[in-house]
Amino acid sequence: MPSPPIPALQGACHCGGVRFQVISSKRRVDDCNCSICTKKAFLHWIVPKSEFEVLCGADLLSEYRFGTGVACHTFCGRCGVHPFYTPRSHPDGVSVNFRCLDGSNSPDFSRRLGFEIVPFDGQNWEANVARIRK
């Protein structure tokens, strides 16, 4: 049986120009060690698009694609922060940067809401991607 939805969580880029909201029962967050995630310090909370909403600032978003071009890495064109993107592993979903959620810098944030932060070996993406597609 799925977990009940977490109360609506909102987040933003650094300047606050891009704001978003997520309502989801998913509580798994992946800490990927691939080259781009490491450099961005991105913690992935992957949710269906239906559980994600851009509240404001869609016009501020820029994108970056590399490799296969499937992943659409979005970032605020004003402050440069990557609050969410469309991941290659879940092209029909959204990967929210857990660190961009309001309140996520609180020491007990993830524990209080029942999130589990799991290491993911993205340096060996092809060998491990099936694990996060569940």
Q: Could you explain the architecture of this structure?
A:
The chain has helices at residues 35-40, 109-112, 125-132; strands at 9-12, 19-22, 28-32, 43-48, 52-56, 61-64, 72-76, 84-86, 93-97, 116-120. The protein has 134 residues and is mainly beta. The chain starts with 8 loop residues before the first strand and ends with a helix. A hairpin with a 7-residue loop joins strand 6 (61-64) and strand 7. The strands form two sheets. It has a seven-stranded mixed sheet with strand order 6-7-8-9-4-3-10, with no helix packed on it. The chain is built from three helices and ten strands; from the N terminus they run βββαββββββαβα. The protein is globular. The protein has one domain: Metal Binding Protein, Guanine Nucleotide Exchange Factor, Chain A, CATH 2.170.150.
Number of beta-strand segments:
10
Largest sheet: 7 strands, mixed
Summed over residues and divided by their number, the pLDDT gives a mean of 91
Order of strands, main sheet, comes to 6-7-8-9-4-3-10
- Based on Cα principal axes, name the global outline: globular
| CATH fold category name | Metal Binding Protein, Guanine Nucleotide Exchange Factor, Chain A
Which architecture name does CATH use?
Beta Complex
How far is the N terminus from the C terminus? 15 Å
The CATH first-level class comes to Mainly Beta
The quaternary structure here is: single chain
Q: Give the uncertain stretches in residue-range form.
A: none
Give a short overview:
It is built from three helices and ten strands; from the N terminus they run E-E-E-H-E-E-E-E-E-E-H-E-H. The protein has 134 residues and is mainly β. The strands form two sheets. A seven-stranded mixed sheet has the order 6-7-8-9-4-3-10, with no helix packed on it. It has a three-stranded antiparallel sheet with strand order 1-2-5, with no helix packed on it.
